[in-house]
Write a structure and sequence with these properties.
Blueprint (H helix, E strand, L loop, with lengths): L1 H5 L4 H8 L6 H9 L3 H16 L2 E5 L1 E5 L27 H13 L4 E5 L8 H14 L4 E4 L2 H11 L3 H11 L3 E2 L9 H7 L6 H13 L3 E8 L5 H18 L2 E8 L15 H14 L10 H4 L1 H7 L6 E4 L6 H4 L10 H10 L3 E5 L5 E4 L16 H9 L1
Parallel strand pairs: 1-8, 1-9, 2-3, 3-4, 5-6, 6-7
Antiparallel strand pairs: 9-10
Length: 389
């Protein structure tokens, strides 16, 4: 594929990438502005292969949203509701534990849990939730809460961010989610998420968590009112924080979903825009190992194509997703393990089941077939532990 790059307007950047030189903000903007998507993809694919080889990963996980009641009114959000709204919801700890128990029987290794900034749930609710979920299976990894939720919980608990994170970690929190980043540029945040935490506050929560030994992912919401320069600025801030802490496990670009909110966009992200955003992210974020093509926002077919444009991960089975679907996302509620493995193989990659921290759980051989998951009320992780003593 090198000939595609060497004969394109990106030939000089090919030399930098091949030599392992760091790209500048000006370089990233050039990459965003090029119309030569094939050359850009080939360049990103070169960087991906050098970083992770030919592997592409997925995780067996389930999403849980404990409530969509929220004290904020972010213009882009179709998920949040007020107490007066008929379609608001709030789940008890027992209800969430029941959903988790069902998911464990399907073989999941991670629960991904976020919600709105609930106006009245006490801090003890969140601690009890983590403790009871972890009690189901101590090896179950709990990836929970956005940075803005952590700030809200710190306010509820009347604790510092550090003390709040330590309390949550002691209760069972394994990883923070990357949500809430949106776009860091202040003028854009004012338009799409007025009243939400600032870029600096978002970064400080993750910085504190990383300093405590925690890991997290990070995101960027693209394709609304931001400029390409705003995207580059967002990526720059993430790269600088990763240089400082080395605490991010992966980056997940999120395509804006335009329906059922107060931020109408005539032209939402196209396939072209998605692929170039993933490619530029791979090339510019040279201190990140993993770039996820989030099939919930892209659809599985485009996510599969993204594996040739710098992405090396398809995210997970998910089972039950509300946030993107309430914003008009057309993707189904879940993907089976078989579907994810098939998509990875069709893209010419070697499938790898990973855990929350992108560590391999199972590496599929080229000829391996997916066997049915054991019919059990217990997690296969726990079954294996019991079998080996």
């Amino acid at each position: 594929m090198d000939f595609l790059i060497k004969r394109s307007e990106l030939a000089d950047l090919h030399s930098k990438v091949a030599a392992g030189e760091r790209l500048s903000e000006a370089d990233a903007l050039r990459l965003f502005e090029t119309r030569d998507l094939n050359a850009l993809g080939a360049l990103a694919n070169l960087a991906r292969e050098r970083r992770v080889g030919n592997r592409a990963s997925y995780i067996l996980n389930r999403y849980l949203n404990y409530s969509n009641y929220c004290i904020l009114s972010c213009q882009f959000c179709a998920f949040a509701r007020k107490k007066r709204d008929a379609d608001g919801f709030e789940l008890t700890v027992a209800e969430l534990v029941a959903k988790a128990r069902e998911a464990l029987a399907l073989g999941i290794t991670e629960l991904h849990i976020v919600g709105g900034l609930h106006p009245s749930l006490p801090f003890s609710y969140y601690l009890d939730l983590l403790r009871e979920l972890k009690a189901l299976d101590p090896r179950l990894q709990l990836k929970c809460f956005t940075a803005i939720e952590i700030l809200h919980l710190a306010w509820l608990a009347k604790k510092s961010v550090e003390a709040t994170l330590l309390a949550l970690k002691d209760a069972g929190l394994d990883s923070l989610t990357g949500g809430g980043a949106e776009i860091f540029a202040p003028a854009v945040r004012e338009k799409i998420a007025r009243g939400k935490e600032s870029a600096e506050e978002w970064a400080d929560v993750h910085r504190t968590w990383h300093r405590l030994g925690g890991r997290s992912t990070c995101t960027m919401l693209y394709g609304h009112v931001e400029t390409l320069a705003d995207r580059v600025d967002h990526l720059r801030r993430l790269r600088e924080l990763q240089d400082e802490t080395r605490g991010f496990t992966g980056f997940i670009p999120l395509a804006y979903q335009p329906e059922n909110n107060q931020l109408p966009i005539t032209h939402p992200p196209t396939g072209f825009d998605t692929l170039r955003t993933i490619a530029v992210s791979r090339l510019y974020l040279d201190n990140f190992d993993h770039i996820t093509a989030y099939w919930v926002g892209l659809g599985l077919k485009l996510a599969q194509v993204a594996l040739s444009f710098g992405a090396d991960d398809l995210h997970g089975t998910i089972v039950e997703e509300h946030i993107f679907r309430m914003a008009g996302g057309p993707a189904p509620q879940l993907q089976t393990e078989a579907q994810l493995v098939k998509a990875i193989r069709e893209a010419g990659r070697q499938p790898v089941q990973r855990d929350t921290f992108y560590q391999p759980v199972k590496v599929w051989e080229p000829s391996a077939e997916i066997l049915p998951r054991p019919a059990s009320t217990r997690s296969p992780v726990l079954e294996a532990n019991l079998a080996t003593g």
